[in-house]
Write a structure and sequence with these properties.
- It contains 8 helices and 6 strands.
- By secondary structure, it is α/β, with parallel strands linked by helices.
- It has a single domain, classed as 3-Layer(aba) Sandwich (Rossmann fold).
Amino acid sequence: MPTLYLIRHGQASFGAANYDKLSEIGHEQSEALGQWFAQEGIIPDVVAHGTLTRQKETLAGILKGMKLELEAELQAGLDEYDFSNLLKAKYAAGGEPEGMLSDHKSHFRTLRTTVAEWQRDEIPDPPEMWAEFTGRVDTACKALMRDGVETVFAVSSGGAISQAVSALLETPGIHQTKMQLQMKNTAITRFVFTPRNTYFHGFNETPHITAANADRLLTYA
């Protein structure tokens, strides 16, 4: 059956001046995933990414690991939501938690509460409305799961992939955030699709990360 592989980007540069680029580990993760795909004989006929640098670099690493050259589709709907500006909107009057953009625990604790408020439309003037975010993710996935394709690799981000799963399973918004917070870098989520239906076949899989390399390659940010 035709399969959409939604792939989270590799480790980005958390805490750096420019988060939106892969770390050295992120590049390693991407190439390792590509090597695993090649080993398993899983060859895409369509590849895609959003507009973010970390997504583009991840796909480039996957294709490098596969020794494959393919032109990528640009699907802006695969982009992550703009959490930094969402926080700025929430704390426009001040009061932001210490370390919310530099400390992992503070960051993810703040993410939970902020996204819950955003889902309820309680944050004034966000960078995009929750309904806009969910709509563009759905549009991108439908565009990729089209007639005539068999295997699609789409590099996206944790929030967008979790929303795609949440929408397919029709879960409350809180589960979107729970899925996002446990998603590993370069993890695979799989949808199998037909012209009439889409089926959930896998979540947060990292077959390219083993006991031999997990100490270095298993990351979440």
